[in-house]
Amino acid sequence: MLNRLAALLLLSCLLSNASALAQTAKPPAERVHIQVDVGKVLRAQVPDALFGFNIHYLNFQQELANACGVALPKVVEQLQPLAGAIYRYPGGLVSNHFNWHDAQGPQNERSPQKTVRWQGPTPVSFGVPEFLNFVDQVDGQPWYVLNLRGFAGEAKSQVLAGQNALAPDKELSSAIMAESNAQLAAYIRQQVGHSQPIYYELGNELDRADYEWSHQKYIQRAQDTVAAITKVDPNTKFVAFLRDFPWRYRDKARKGQVSSTERFIKEVLTALPMVNDFSLHYYYDDPGMEHKKTKWIPWRTRQFKQAIKLAKAQRPNADVKVWITEHARGINLTQPKPMKRVALTSNLQAAISTADFLATMVHIPEVQGAALHGLNAGPWQVFDASAEFGDRRPRATLTALTLLRDTRLPNLVASRVQGPKHSGYGGGYDVSAAAFANKGQTELGLWVMNRANRTYSATISLPGWANQQVWVQHNRMHGLVGGTGDGPSGDIQLALEQPRRIAQVNKFGQLKLELPALSISGVSIQRLKEG
What we know:
Layout: H1 2-24, E1 31-43, E2 52-54, H2 57-63, H3 73-79, E3 86-89, H4 128-137, E4 141-145, H5 156-161, H6 174-192, E5 199-201, H7 215-232, E6 237-241, E7 247-248, E8 258-259, H8 261-271, E9 277-284, H9 297-314, E10 321-329, H10 341-344, H11 348-361, E11 367-373, H12 396-407, E12 411-418, E13 431-437, E14 443-450, E15 456-461, E16 469-478, E17 493-495, E18 501-504, E19 510-515, E20 519-527
Helix pairs in contact: 6-7, 7-8, 8-9, 11-12
């Protein structure tokens, strides 16, 4: 009896102590800690090309240019701060059908061409010369996606003369397309001069989509075009498209067969030894697909890194370069049109995703540039043509790119983020960041993205800056507490030209900062000059 009573007393004591401990335990941390090591340079000279765009020529000429194919002044003005960005033309899949011969010369002599399913034959007013002029106006880098497949016309003489443009679009021989591409390269070099680097991407997604080319077919056509262009312009750079996922064929002959990532990369780079640059595409954070890990930026980043590792294995002594030539918030093809895809691809949530993606990509040293999809391109609108106001004002994604570009400094430095996870983002975090410094390590630039719809207090740790007075400028765009980030533009709060203030880094080397809900912050910190 006494033993039983003693056991009950002991159990009561343990339960009481456990209850007391539970009552006194601290709640989960609601603060964000950003550790920055200004002296640890991860990457020197972060490239301007990260802030680029994919251009769909047809959308551009219909939405962002006048009747003569000249870009609207407001478009040029908004893009000029992003000097050095890449501009990829004539777009994505349309590139595999585009006839450049009918996209140059006097506009009244350009025959209509059909490159998309949703519109009949249309003359190209924003053609090759207009594109090159536009890139010059915004001080960008021209990128051209070569057509390896074919277009309207049957005989070689018809193709090269730009005749029979209303004939059915069809696949032409590799020899015809190689000669056509060589003429294009000679034309572009004549237009831009010899000081301007030109990148030619070898087709767009021909291994998938409606094409599903075999490895050998893509390789053979790429080889023919590379050889032809090199003869007329040996200083060009070629970019092969690769992928970071296996492709399961859907055509009748090969249905169920799989083209593995490793085999595709190995065979393409083995057969094209002159190519050290390749492209990858990624559409992330599609609305309504939050549960899909393939849409989470951290998950796909691991895929990218594995693809890069495979490519570098084929180029052990070369400087392998990666270009993300299409990226954006996805449109979720499984959802009906009432989902208002156009608004969702360029709103605040899309801007946060885009900024988070670029902050991740900048940490991969092989990534040399990126092209946001698109300027404008179908449901993706960097300038509002029909998303909300229809007056070509910049959408949130463009505002985000400009904010990031303004905050970036030459060198990427080490940083680490710790914080809560209330947003529910499958990537496993609320806050992400990237840190930059000048060469003298007296200035710091921070990109900080907060996916949560609540405000956080952040502590920035700056070892070696203890007891220093600094100038702080915190420019930002953000949403509403408790909001979704998918609302109208009126829900977005802008504070983009904030005055500098003097702040004190405490004795522990820490600086306090408030991160608004659903926000992108560009923070500049500069040591005060002594005296």
